[in-house]
Amino acid sequence: MTTLKVVPGANARQAFRFGIAAAAIVGLVGVGALYWAGLMTPTLLGFTLVLCFPVYLVFAASILSVWLGFDKDATDLRPVYREREQHERGAD
Length: 92
Prior knowledge:
This protein is an all-alpha fold. It contains two helices and no strands.
């Protein structure tokens, strides 16, 4: 029995872009609120924005891609073949 592969369409791509933008805004507002409330020092704010925020966005993208059907598994892999060169080195 074969399974039907459904490729995500334009709506899924648009939802992914919207989800990433929403996650970025929520994350930045959250970090800004913590800084404004005095719970973060400027050093911790810089650390959070430079190191933690990109990791947060990667996790958000991973969750969104699985939810919207962009995830891949072993059945999506194809073998890669390299074409042989016409002339071997030194065989002119």
